[in-house]
Each structure stands twice: as C-alpha cells, then as structure tokens.
C-alpha cells in the first residue's frame, strides 16, 4: 500500500515539523503577553531586560516536544480520530513537558525564570498542538481517498472487509472493487461469484486473468493481494505440528516438536520480494530459511539476561503502585488481591501467571473459561482502570524473574483456549517456541477484537525478526499504549 503509506508518512512528517514551530510560537507568545498585558496573579508587567537576564530553554523544549507527544499518542492516527480526546491529551503531554522544564531549571540552579511565562507557554503550546491536529485531521478526512483493489478468494476478503467496516483509517481507504483468483496456475478463467460478500455492496470486477484490463479501466492506487492457502502453507503446517523424532516420553506436550529439522526453500521471485533473503545458499542457488529454531539465536540468550535485570528494576520501582492498587482492591471488592491462573508457556508447558484481580471473585464459577472483552460485565470499576492502565499486569514481573515469561513475546493463553487454537489456527504451535511475554507486537498493533489468526502473524513476525532494538521499540510503544489506554 505504497500510496497509503506515503500519505501517512507525509502527514506525520508535516505534523512533527509543525510541532517544532509550535514550540517557538508558544514560547514567543508567552513572553510577548507578559511584556505587554497585566495578568491575574502577577504583580506587574514583566521587565523587558528579563529577556536577556535568563537562559532560554528552547533547545530543551524542542527536544522534549516530540518525545512527550509521542508517548501520549499524539502522532497515532488511530487515537487522534477520537477527536474529543485530542485537547485533553495535548494538555497532559505539554503538562509533563512543563514539569520536565521546571526540573531542568531546578537542577541547573536557576530560580529567576518567570514562572508565569512557563505556565503561559504550556497553555499556548497545548492549544496550538490540539488545534493543529484537529485542523489537519479534518483536511485529511476530506482528502481524496486511496483507491484500493482487493485480489483474492471470497474467504480471504471477508475478514479484511470486516476490519475496514469497523475502523475508519486515515488517510481514507476506498475499495474500488474485488478480483478473484480464477485463471491462475493454468486453471480455466471464469467470472466468480462474490459468494457471501453481497452485504459489502462492492463490485466484482472479474478474474485474475483480467487484472491488466481492470487496472487500466479504473483509477487504482494500491492493489492488495489477500493470501490464499497454498501447498507450501499446508506442508509447513504439517512440519510445524508433527514431531520428526519419536520419543519414549509419553508426557511430551503436543505443542513441543523435538528434533525438528531446519526447512529451506528455493524462493520464487514473489518470495524474494516479500521476504528477507538469508545468507544460506547451496553453491549458486539462493535459499530462504522457512522453519528454524528462533530461541537458538544468540540474541535470545542476551534477551534472557536483560529480561531479569529490567524486570527486577521495574518491580522495585512499581512497589508503591502495587501497594496502592492492592489496597484499592481489598477495599472495593471482596476476594483475593492476587489472581493466579494457569497459562501455556514455552514448549506447551503450563505455568502459574500472577495478576491483580480485576473481576468479581468467582467470575467463572458458572460460565467456565470465557475470553475477556473490552466491555466485560464481570470487571469491577477499579478493575477496569487497572486493566486500562496495565497496572494489573505488574505482578507478572515475578513471572519474568522466575523464568516462565519474558518482557516481550507472544501473550500466553489459557490451556482451554490454547488447545482450541492449536487445532483451528494453522501454525499456532510455532508461537510456543519462545517464552510468552508481558507485551508483544500483537498487543501494540492489535485491539480486543483482533482475530487469533492476525495476532499469530504478528507473533511470528516478532519471533523471526527478533532484535534487542525491536524489544526496545515494543516496550516504548507499550508505554504509549498504556498512556492512551488502548490495545489488547
């Protein structure tokens, strides 16, 4: 989706540059107002000589502007579409910047900077940042939508169209039409029925053999190929789910594959375009590593050491927050403070996961295991806040310290749901090759309604592209998600 991505990137770049202009404009306006107009709670006009007597923190303000706006999701179009939250977020982000600037002056030992200027700067900066976003979002919403063409089978089109129906992406996307796959691989061409897609009211434009004509006949910015299951997918699924070396241990988990060989593929042009070629080759034949053991990577050994060090530090820092949350749970809802639950970890081994209790005691006594939803009636009022702020997940730092979890990785599922997904989601067992995490790529990119199939794709993308920098990025984005109270 090159055209969609370019519009998105151009919007974000313009927003960053405009935010830097806001810093200078708000700072200058704050000083100008204090020099010319008497304000409440001030003794007199600010003397003009103060402009040269104080050190101006412009570089510090420029450096912190983008940082605080990023952590309050003010560069996230998904969050900015909730227009009623833009101005409160701008006030909160610039309020944090005000505190940081005050601390900067305090540690420098400068106490003569006019505090009224800082307060005015905060208000002007927040106002400009909020109005800027509301104006640009309005303009972006009115812009000509990116015209996309979906190519695939009806079964693959439905979940994609359902996502588009539930969200309003910015820049706007418009589906120009649907194209089937008949005629590929020597199959006779035929005009397919858009079976089961009538509710979306989109034109069925023909088959893949007519794609050149379709693109020439109508304006199309991007073509999205919706992947169908191929013989490669079927073969890989069998290799992932069936152990290749028998073991006498009858207690081996069905998730755990022992002695699995590495699988290499001679790539097609398509595989090379969408994948990442490895350094493996046989003489002059390039090979792509399709199945490997991600936890054997040296980077994962470093990850284990970093996990424990960072988890220990975070646990100490979070003790006051845990104490307040525990007291709140004890006062507002009868039952245990810490909730223990069995989850499936690396290799399919079960472990005990610790959380602060956010539901009424005995929530599943009559229903049995039920997947949580964003508006779950079993969640207490305090529990909803603990979930949105992710405070309920803090006891899992102990799981990281005892080695059953990692800071970043696929989220661990309950055994009842893991067994179900094992049989219904192709390749699900592969995500159990690594330790589960407190947060993950699926959590910072998904929502409560994101399907297990899409979450699995994020998990596999994380596992096979792991780096320490990727972990740091996910942890950074998790802080942003916590402050914006969204995600899964």
Helical fraction: 40-55%
**Structural class computed from helices and strand pairing:** alpha/beta
Round the Cα radius of gyration to an integer and report it. Answer: 27 Å
Give the CA-CA distance, first to last residue: 25 Å
Principal-axis shape: globular
**Helix run count:** 18
What does this protein structure show overall?
The protein is of the alpha/beta class and 488 residues long. It has four domains: 2-142, no CATH class; 146-225, no CATH class; 231-295, no CATH class; 298-484, no CATH class. 49% of the residues lie in helices and 10% in strands. It is built from 18 helices and twelve strands. It has helices at 2-36, 50-53, 58-71, 77-80, 86-108, 115-142, 154-166, 211-217, 231-241, 269-274, 298-317, 319-332, 381-388, 396-401, 415-424, 441-445, 452-464, 468-484, and strands spanning 146-151, 173-179, 204-206, 222-225, 263-265, 281-282, 285-286, 288-291, 338-344, 350-356, 406-408, 437-439. The strands form five sheets. A four-stranded parallel sheet has the order 3-2-1-4. A two-stranded antiparallel sheet has the order 5-8. α1 runs antiparallel to α6 (115-142) and α3 (58-71) packs across α5 (86-108). The longest helix is centred in the N-terminal third of the chain and has 35 residues, at 2-36. It is globular and about 80 Å long. The two termini are 25 Å apart.
């Amino acid at each position: 989706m090159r055209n969609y991505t370019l519009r998105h990137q151009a919007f974000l770049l313009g927003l960053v540059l405009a935010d830097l202009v806001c810093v200078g404009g708000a700072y200058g306006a704050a000083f100008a107002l204090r020099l010319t107009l008497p304000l409440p709670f001030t003794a007199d006009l600010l003397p003009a000589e103060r402009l040269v007597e104080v050190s101006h923190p412009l570089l510090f303000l420029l450096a912190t502007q983008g940082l605080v706006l990023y952590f309050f999701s003010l560069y996230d179009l998904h969050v900015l579409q909730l227009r009623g939250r833009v101005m409160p977020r701008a006030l909160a982000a610039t309020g944090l910047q005000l505190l940081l600037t005050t601390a900067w002056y305090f540690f420098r030992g400068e106490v003569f900077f006019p505090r009224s200027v800082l307060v005015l700067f905060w208000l002007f900066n927040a106002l400009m940042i909020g109005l800027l976003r509301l104006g640009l979002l309005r303009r972006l919403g009115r812009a000509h939508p990116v015209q996309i063409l979906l190519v695939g089978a009806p079964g693959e089109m439905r979940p994609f169209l359902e996502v588009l129906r539930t969200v309003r992406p910015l820049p706007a996307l418009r589906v120009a039409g649907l194209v089937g796959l008949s005629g590929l691989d020597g199959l006779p061409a035929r005009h397919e029925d858009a079976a089961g897609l009538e509710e979306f009211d989109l034109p069925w434009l023909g088959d893949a053999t007519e794609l050149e004509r379709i693109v020439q006949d109508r304006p199309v910015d991007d073509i999205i190929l919706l992947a169908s299951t191929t013989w490669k997918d079927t073969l890989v699924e069998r290799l992932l789910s069936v152990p290749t070396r028998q073991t006498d241990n009858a207690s081996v988990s069905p998730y755990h594959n022992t002695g699995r060989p590495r699988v290499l593929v001679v790539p097609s042009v398509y595989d090379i375009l969408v994948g990442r070629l490895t350094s493996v080759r046989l003489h002059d034949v390039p090979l792509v590593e399709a199945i490997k053991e991600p936890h054997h990577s040296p980077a994962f050994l470093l990850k284990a050491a970093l996990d424990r060090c960072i988890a220990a530090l975070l646990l100490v820092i979070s003790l006051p927050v845990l104490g307040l949350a525990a007291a709140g749970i004890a006062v507002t809802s009868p039952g245990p403070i810490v909730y223990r639950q069995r989850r499936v970890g690396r290799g399919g081994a079960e472990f005990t996961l610790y959380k602060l209790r956010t539901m009424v005691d005995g929530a599943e006594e009559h229903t049995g295991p039920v997947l949580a939803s964003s508006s779950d009636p079993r969640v207490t009022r305090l529990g909803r806040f603990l979930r949105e702020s992710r405070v309920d997940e803090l006891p899992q730092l102990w799981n990281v310290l005892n080695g059953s979890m990692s800071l970043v990785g696929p989220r661990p599922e309950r055994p009842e749901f893991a067994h179900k997904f094992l049989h219904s989601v192709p390749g699900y067992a592969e995500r159990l090759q690594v330790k589960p995490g407190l947060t993950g790529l699926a959590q910072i990119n998904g929502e409560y309604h994101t399907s297990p199939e899409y979450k699995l794709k994020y998990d596999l993308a994380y596992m096979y592209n792991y780096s320490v920098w990727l972990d740091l990025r996910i942890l950074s984005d998790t802080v942003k998600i916590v402050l914006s109270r969204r995600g899964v």
